User: What shape does this take?
Amino acid sequence: MKKDRAAATRRDWLKMVKQFRFDPDRPASEAVWSPRLECCSRDELRAIQERKLAALVPFVYENSAFYRRRFELLGLIPSDIRSVEDLQRKWPVVTKDEMAQDVSAAPPYGTYTTVSDEVWRDNGWMMFTTSGSTGTPRIFRYTHNDRHMFTWASARAMHAFGIRRTDTLLMCSGFGPHIFAWTAQHALTHMNVAWIPGGGLDARARASLVQRHRPSVLCCTPSYALHLARVMQEMGGDPAMHGVRLIFVGGEPAIGVPQTRERIESLWNARMVEFYGCTEAAAHGGYSCQVRAGKDRPVSAHLSEDTQIWETVRPGDYAPIERGERGLTVVTNLNSEGSPQLRFLMGDYTTLDSSGCECGRTHLRAMGSFVGRADDLINVRGVKFFPVDIEHAVRSIPGAGDEYEIVLSVDEGGMDVMTVRIEHAEHAHPAALVDRLQAEIRTRVEIRASAEVLVPGTLPRTEFKARRVRDARRKA
Assistant: This one.
């Protein structure tokens, strides 16, 4: 009987998701995006979310032991959550710590998944793991239904960037067990956009591909876009002269750091766009459009509200906050069979805005994009800040190299201290640079830090996601 209920709610859920795919759903269509969904009214969006939510809640209850236990602990049954308001009022956010504890108790997949061994055997697509640097990576089993959902939603995002079938894209992200590159390549195929697989190659080989084949779009992390440009310069080339018009980035804050964005766009003579998501719950959550940021037009990222429910909460107690207040991102995924999480704490700081965009899209926007994940918060002597705050300081130093490092340690008196290390051509006479960098840091994070100016090429070059913080305070 229980197995029958689980199967029935799965069928209902997949049928509901399919009802709200209004795009032509055919490769090579310039209408791969869905104006009926992306430009609808706020009331229409809420109605779509609540219809999907009505099918999603029974599905997770019947197919995930993790969620069923949570319902029981809260004294709830699926019919208690009928609206977005019910969800936000009655259902506490789900954290990564909860998932980590669950997978430790029930390895290797935990019980938060809605994919049973039987479903996996009959319809399994790929396993992906979280790419965070703390804790044991969590595994997510995604099905072919997920592949179809992610492909369509990601193609819509890429269409918003301005990617078209006349483009050729060089994929510099590795094809490891991380969802970003795989989702992107399926979306490109759906759009009939040609792409060059660059995974497994070193930077010189990728630079040669750019020079020989002149792709119009480059897909990588922001730090790798800087690294690849410098390698091309070392090889005697000019990144700006090889036809790249669009830099498609993800994995690190960048769009919301003006100096970094300007540096990348200047090096490549290209526009940079951003893709925002996570393995757990939103592989295709946020994206740039073609409206350029300017003096009176702040950077923003669109959020896919017909496929997810987005909100922000207060750090610490995770209480809901009003639109326009800065808080941590929370997502309910309405677009997955394998990981349809209810109020999952993604944990990036942003400010949500429901006003429409000049591009015509009506979904929520993350103003200033995303500038720091709560997991990355640094605490030095009670002063809390993000690595991106230090990046702002580093980028304000004229002539500073692309790489930098934040070193946290304990001095002889037992006090936490921070040293920021940069590279600069004037490393032989660093006094003025050290003073300038220390002042910039103090202005932004109100802490006195040491600074070091190193010979260019000293710090490790970034090949995937940049690891800017070295915390020597942690015990082995």
The first strand starts at residue 124 and ends at 129. The domain at 378-471 is CATH 3.30.300.30 (GMP Synthetase; Chain A, domain 3). The first helix runs from residue 2 to 19. The two ends are 50 Å apart (CA to CA).
